[in-house]
Amino acid sequence: MTDQFKAIVINKDASGIRASLTTLDESQLMEGDVTIAVSHSTLNFKDGLALTSGAPVVRKFPMVGGIDLAGTVLSSTDGRYAPGDAVIVNGWGLSETHFGGYAERARVKADWLVRLPVEFTPSQAMAIGTAGYTAMLCVLALEDGGVKPSTGPVLVTGAAGGVGSIAISLLSTLGFKVTASTGRPNEADYLKQLGASEIIDRAELAGDPKPLAKERWAGAVDSVGSKTLANVLASIQYGGVVAACGLAQGMDLPSSVAPFILRGVTLAGIESVYCPMPRRVKAWERLARNLDRDKLERTIVRAKLADVLTLAPQIVKGQIRGRVVVDLKA
Predict the structure, then answer these.
(1) How far apart (Å, rounded) are the C-alpha atoms in residues 262 and 258?
(2) Residues 225-268 pLDDT 10s
(3) So where are the chain's domains?
(4) 129-269 architecture in CATH?
(5) Which CATH number is associated with domain 4-116+299-327?
(6) Residue 16's pLDDT band (boundaries 50, 70, 90)?
(7) Full-prediction pTM beyond 0.85?
């Protein structure tokens, strides 16, 4: 077996940040207990930012991109894992401070690994990836806050994106009536196939927010932030829950305390990178139980490793529907 492998490496110099497909060898891998033959990765909004220098995601250079990976253990100094074990990694600083999934080899800490659920292939696990796992964390937050199908409809913003697509699929399968907010009206049929019962234009939620608006939804999954999140909070029913996990529109939140002190609304922050392992494992167990495989397949865009460099600017601009699965063996 050769110790050389393909990788997308992000570098920084006087001219800025650039990413390129190159060749590394195993001696260049970072420290860790487990070495993995990576078979699949994916492309998230955060990956797009890292590869296009759209935000200061990468904190150490050079860096192998990719915040997700799935593969098979090649070697391990940790007794919990042995060669041949199928594993996945989401987050834990991949593509920020530690080499990520856009390489045919990875070396990581054993504490970061989740065993690949038997219900999923590596390709399906990466169709889920951080976006889908984050969507499940959002659903868990709604459930923890008492939001049920019987309490009213739920809203998903950024609906055609990675988190939005999986969230719609999960919520509809669980019996919720889902409203999908999107800026891409041409994706209405796609969103309805995933389970959305109503489609609204994102412009309805993108303007200057009022402290309170008409109560419309029992809960929401928001990956947009800024004025959109403020408008969502103002429109949540009494006692409802909003799970916030993204900032596609911006990091600001021009809201007021009104939804919280007058309607008892809960804003639940969702953090997936360093999420504690018990919660992480629970999310993957629920994905294995609740995610419709046929709906998942409808979200997939398949790509080779070299394609990531072309697709990264597109995902930042909101031009990619669903989930990109990167096959490193192709």
Answers:
(1) 5
(2) 999 999 999 999 999 999 999 999 999 999 999 999 999 999 99
(3) 4-116+299-327, 129-269
(4) 3-Layer(aba) Sandwich (3.40)
(5) 3.90.180.10
(6) confident
(7) yes
